[in-house]
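2.7 Reproducibility. Because tokenized structures are sensitive to small changes in the input, we list the exact sequence used for Protein-export membrane protein SecG, including any N-terminal residues retained from the expression construct. No trimming or masking was applied before prediction.
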Amino acid sequence: MYVCIGGSALYNLIMTLLIIVSILIVIATMMQPQKQQDALNALSGGAVFSGQTKKRGFEAFMEKVTAVLLVLFFVFAIILAYMSTK
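Resulting structure tokens (single pass, no recycling of outputs):
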């Protein structure tokens, strides 16, 4: 399925985790609520005067999940880059 460098089981594990996290990032991004009206307000300058509200509920949860997944993605990618140079 993927290239094994030096037969390292740890490399294979991290590669598998990176693939899983990548798929979860796509799913989490697709599940976030659409912000078409917010984007329109931002382009027209209306967002400045609309009283920015704090995100709550599902939207806040999905934002946190996406942030955690992105951090995991970059950590795994850096680890794999380091392991592939050794």
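The chain is about 70% helix and 0% strand.
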